[in-house]
């Protein structure tokens, strides 16, 4: 099969075969734009090379044939003659990987052709400048000689000849540079080939090999680009921006990539080649200045930029060279842009009749919206990171370090900005998290308690920062010799996982009119409803402001964690008799009722799914190890009496409730069946709140969720309890209300027996966090903290299954649960409320499954709205 295509033979649709750069060079050639001629070696040839580790004879023959055609087109001769042909050799993957792979310019020069180029151009300085550039690039990329050796030598020569920049070096100085470069190469045990054909073949191999250099591998892993794609190689006749002041090179965007404003945005350099712009050796000029320097070239470039934008129906990033006043295009591609720019460009292009609303929705990456929904650290600030952890919750925060949740609440309530720093957080720390600007832990993964809670609150969080050593007793943490004490100010960048000492300047989020317009288009296109996970009226209000259409998960255990309630919860747990337990529960009932009243008022008739108590009771009691230490200290001090007896009683209770595997233990519906009075009080509080709010003229739609059902009889019994309490409250309040009862599907058995469970359930909500744990047999925090990074690095798993839904395993049993549930009850409502409810890939899968809604944290609602619309558009197309 063919492995080489001339630019004139390809088009933009051949991206997978020709790579993005090659496909776009072919496309620009086909529409008559000034592209220097050349040809592309396919990505398939790269994959063959990766397996065989050599260039095949067939490929070499094709390259030879296309090189002959290129000589005919340019009227130049490769490797000899009075008018030598020089070429560039550039990589170009199907998915843009800027700067990750290698490039070589001015290939074809040797000791003879450089003299021919000098005569032909009548510019010896230009020819020698090209030669010294080529020698350095070839030596670095192909021969693997250290870049530093050449740069050090170049600086020495510039100093010797009193040249401020490379461009001030005269021919005599450049000859010295070239001779010295050859000495460096020889001293490194390498040989520079004088044969241009050998240079070309070695360069092709080097570009193919760069597909697997470390930076390319890391970039692909970060951006989830398949290793199997390979890179194309583009061989193109050189045009020279370093001929003199009538020549130059630059990069420009058709719109501002930071703001989205419709303006040419970029830079250029006179008398330069491409790498000069990006290397930072010389200060480029703004593209607007080209209009004064070369007005005709600028006018032509502006016209072409507009044409390309309309042709590709997207903002373009264009590389260009000017040779002796003539403009050439070397590349165009969709430009990288900020979230704010992406939204503005998409909306503006619809208004300019360049694209449709559907196309606009597909132009914005949903996860980019995180940048718009959280404060972020000013990217212009010059900051050095103390340490880096897992970017568990986006946004940025700055505040005083606090190591205790109670202290965080006290200081936060007094108006101070604090960062809660803990080895890890527990539900006991919830009040401290609420009062903090952000959370930092040295242990735990991206779906640990701290991460989940912080994301739900829209607070930045960095987890698993193992390089910081926390001393809770001394109230300090240290990292690489730097000591940070309580009260010191630090800053967190939850989007990158970086921790900074001192106060970093923050940029507040701004929801633009364009974003609201884009999301309104998304709402018209999407099929999935979008709800929010919200545990209090404040979160419910935030969710509504971001467009949530209900609450898909209200976790009642978070209500129990309030500082004014934990003592009552512990009183209930420690009660020795049912009578005493009921007394404690009755104290909790009005507090729970007030919570639900506030939430129902905020939701104004939208559906509200409330999950009854889920975690095991021991999570509400003190830590066993800490309690043992406390008792030991009391004994050492000689303390005795009632206080010590109470501690011993508490220790006995903690031990009795301790579990070997709490995730699979006495929690969820099992708790409600053994202690039905707990669920009865919660349900009564929900229905009393519903009655009160309805009397205020506000509609309510409570949906009671029974957690962790694995057997249909569990749901049968607990539904009967809910119905009994509903009937009692309706009689007491003299008002009728509608409600529904369903379950969270988070066990494989629930999926496998969904047809039986659906006989009692009016809705299923897939709790994919626990469903992933129980399907894989992974403990979430242990997996993320220990072996999961290895699994991802070795590509045993393509993605973290707690971040991106595992379609092959978890997805398969979800599909079974959907089909079985609807077989029994065709109109059963189906949703998802785990972490995956805010992940675009997982949302697309939920659309394919035919779910009714997804639920995510309030700050991810706009992301879910856009992702759901994209899923509907792509599924339709």
Task: Describe the protein's architecture and organization.
The chain has 877 residues and is α/β, with parallel strands linked by helices. It has 36 helices and 31 strands. Strands 12-22-21-14-15-16-17-13 form an eight-stranded mixed β-sheet. An eight-stranded parallel barrel has the order 24-25-26-27-28-29-30-31, surrounded by six helices. It has a five-stranded antiparallel β-sheet with strand order 1-2-5-3-4. A hairpin with a 2-residue loop joins strand 19 and strand 20. Helix 19 (513-525) crosses helix 36. The radius of gyration is 33 Å and the shape is elongated. The model has no long low-confidence stretch (mean pLDDT 91).
